[in-house]
Amino acid sequence: MTTEPSAYHQRVARQKRKAILEAATRLFLDSGYARTSLAKVAEAAEVSKATLFKQFPTKAALFDAIVTASWRTGEEDVVRPSAGDPGTGLALIGRRYVALLTSPGMADLFRIVIAEMPRFPELAEAQFNQGKMPYFDSVRRYLEAECAAGTIAVDDLDLAATQFLGMISNYVFWPRMLLPHWAPDEASMERVVDEAVRMMRAGYGTG
């Protein structure tokens, strides 16, 4: 006799989790972190309190899950670029980064963290340690692989990863924190990625 949940129950559990994360994000943004209770999240997500507490026993655990989901959406299903062609690999990473930064919930998540940081610094720590750093490390590992392949020469991998991601986010994302209607078109964002790749190859390429 198996104790594994059926495919149906697994699907229902995923749907409820998605509803909880979406409801919590809306409430955190509209009401603030302090004024949002798990009971309110359960009501907004149309799930029982027992269902919510089973998955997220604390509000901090719920916020951590929102951060993780926002930074890793779809990343587990994509093919990582192979070392050997930094132009192609960096372009692929750059375009995925644009898609991530322009996803519907990413700007909202940062606004929650910025608004609540004076009272709840742990939210910023969660955003940094569970969201940004794992993504940053994946880019760093790619650059490290290209160094091993001899296609680029980088003395400071952390700096190089910061430079590449910064060239993209400083145009695509950060202006949205002050200008809510900032929405560069696809061609502009493509050009930003292409220029970031060109500068990385010019600065670190060996060929």
Account of the 3D structure:
The protein is mainly α. It has helices at 7-31, 38-45, 49-55, 59-72, 86-101, 106-116, 121-149, 157-172, 186-204. Helix 1 (7-31) crosses helix 2 (38-45), helix 5 crosses helix 8 and helix 7 (121-149) packs across helix 8. The radius of gyration is 20 Å and the shape is globular.
Structural class of the secondary elements?
A: mainly alpha
Which outline best applies? Answer: globular
What is the number of helices? 9
Main beta sheet strand tally, sense and closure: none
CATH superfamily of the largest domain: Tetracycline Repressor, domain 2
Specify the CATH architecture of the largest domain.
Answer: Orthogonal Bundle
Q: Residue-averaged pLDDT, rounded?
A: 90
Question: What do we call the CATH topology of the largest domain?
Answer: Tetracycline Repressor, domain 2
Could you name the key traits of this structure?
mainly alpha, Arc Repressor Mutant, subunit A, 2 domains, Tetracycline Repressor, domain 2
Short description:
70% of the residues lie in helices and 0% in strands.
Strands, helices and their partners?
Layout: H1 7-31, H2 38-45, H3 49-55, H4 59-72, H5 86-101, H6 106-116, H7 121-149, H8 157-172, H9 186-204
Helix pairs in contact: 1-2, 1-4, 2-3, 4-7, 5-8, 5-9, 6-7, 7-8, 8-9
Keywords: DNA-binding, Transcription, Transcription regulation
GO biological process, one term: negative regulation of DNA-templated transcription
Pfam families: TetR_C_7 (PF14246), TetR_N (PF00440)
